[in-house]
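hiii, so i know i said id send this last week but things got crazy w the move. better late than never?? heres the sequnce for the chain we talked about at the cafe, plus the structure i predicted for it. fair warning i was half asleep when i ran it
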Amino acid sequence: MAQAAAYTDLVFEIVTPELRLFEERLESELRSSVAFIEAIGADLARAGGKRLRPGVAFLTGRLLGAQPETAMQVALAVELFHSASLLHDDLIDDADTRRGSEAAFRRYGNVVSVMSGDFMLARVLGLLAQSGSAAFTALMARTAADVCEGEVLQFQVATLQEYSWENYRRIIEGKTAVLLAAASKGVGVLAGATVDELAALQTFGMAYGRAFQLRDDYLDLLGDPAVLGKPVGGDLREGKATHTVLSLILDHDSEETRTILTRHAAQGGDVERVADLALALGAADATRREIEAQAAEAVAALDAFAPSAERSALIGLAEHEVARLR
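okay and structure toks below
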């Protein structure tokens, strides 16, 4: 994970001034006169992460020659929505920690955590009003609906065992891709990009997002815990059928994998057994090929733009999802 963060820092180096200002503006947006809301907001701001969505927004802004404030509005709206979803997701998943710290609902209780997330959503509404753009507001509304549907669909699939490639694609788009697409296309909407440019930004964001989530799911099963900084097999233990597991079930008719998934890998050696099957039967290779295909689609979408440092940085982000598998 440290290597991935270091690479992202390198890619985003050209938008360092924007990202520094973003942190200040985000802190301002999270400010509240209510101490618990203020504390949760401060924790989220400090946790930070790679700031992938803001970084993509700022690179897109430079790619299009947009005014800095244009990309800032998009970056803040998308990241605040993402932060709100994290608070809600931790409660739904009954998570103990968030980025190494105690989850907000564990520390402050369910009501405070949920309402703090709603507070952030209210801030998003304020940013959308400030943008004055009906098109950007509509884009964020569709994005929010997709995120919610993806979360519920993931639970539905695990509960009813509705395993299919279509469902998996919708889930990873809701978890990751639609927010990255909003971060890129949203800037284009506010900057007055052409129809072709908007389509290219949408395609890039969705394909890059799918590659990102596919790689994340792949490493959760087949990664090195020492490199990841956490145990593998988390998705299996939560009953989530990721691409590699789906390949075993749908392409290789592995009843053993289905049984392990149904019991949430509750027996010793379950995770290791699925990983061994994935390598032996070719399911791991199938996932790698899909990651490569999605990354290639993201890169190809950027052909719509003239060569530049910003375009190269966005291409680098997509290609790095493949490099991280080596």
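btw The domain at 2-323 is CATH 1.10.600.10 (Farnesyl Diphosphate Synthase). thought thatd interest u
miss u guys!!
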